């Protein structure tokens, strides 16, 4: 792949909606994530996005009194970033670009965060992908997909219900979650 560049995208993030909506078709949710998160992308020759991700700061959620402090993932009190969306353009799938984007963003955040988390459906392909990126299972949100989405979601022939979260230590110091 020639000249892949990682970019933090600050302006006109809405122009990337068509690609982001391939990861989550709820436009209002994606737009809300773009308002609170940071959009990163891998670009070919600075123009064409081949893979995008939205990262949010979840540190407050895992503080001692935060809404996620009760989750048993070894993350309480840690500086936590969450990969909320990860998508690769169809013509570029299967080339390791989502993995490359995720790894490069983890490297970029290693001085600001202790851990990166990501939630996904309980699908073997996704489990292999995130484990292959150095993530380990850390907690489950039961019935997340069946309660949060208006219609059933199927992936790889599996009806999604629980959301499995994975964590990866990315900070330069301190123990890894779990």
TrEMBL record:
InterPro entries: Acyl_CoA_acyltransferase, GNAT_dom. GO terms for molecular function: acyltransferase activity, transferring groups other than amino-acyl groups. This is GNAT family N-acetyltransferase. It comes from the Bacteria. Residues 69-135 form the N-acetyltransferase domain. It comes from Candidatus Desulfovibrio intestinavium.
């Amino acid at each position: 792949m020639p000249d892949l560049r990682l970019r933090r995208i600050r302006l006109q993030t809405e122009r990337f909606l068509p690609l982001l909506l391939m990861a989550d078709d709820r436009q209002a949710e994606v737009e809300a994530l773009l308002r609170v998160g940071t959009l990163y992308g891998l670009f070919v020759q600075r123009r064409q996005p081949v893979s995008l991700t939205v990262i949010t700061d979840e540190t407050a959620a895992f503080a001692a009194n935060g809404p996620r402090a009760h989750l048993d993932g070894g993350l309480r009190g840690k500086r936590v970033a969450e990969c909320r969306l990860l998508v690769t353009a169809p013509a570029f799938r299967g080339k390791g670009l989502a993995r490359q984007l995720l790894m490069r963003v983890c490297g970029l955040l290693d001085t600001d965060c202790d851990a990166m988390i990501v939630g996904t459906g309980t699908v073997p392909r996704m489990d292999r992908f995130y484990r292959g990126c150095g993530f380990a299972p850390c907690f489950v949100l039961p019935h997340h997909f069946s309660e949060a989405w208006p219609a059933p979601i199927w992936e790889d022939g599996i009806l999604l219900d629980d959301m499995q979260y994975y964590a990866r230590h990315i900070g330069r110091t301190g123990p890894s979650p779990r």
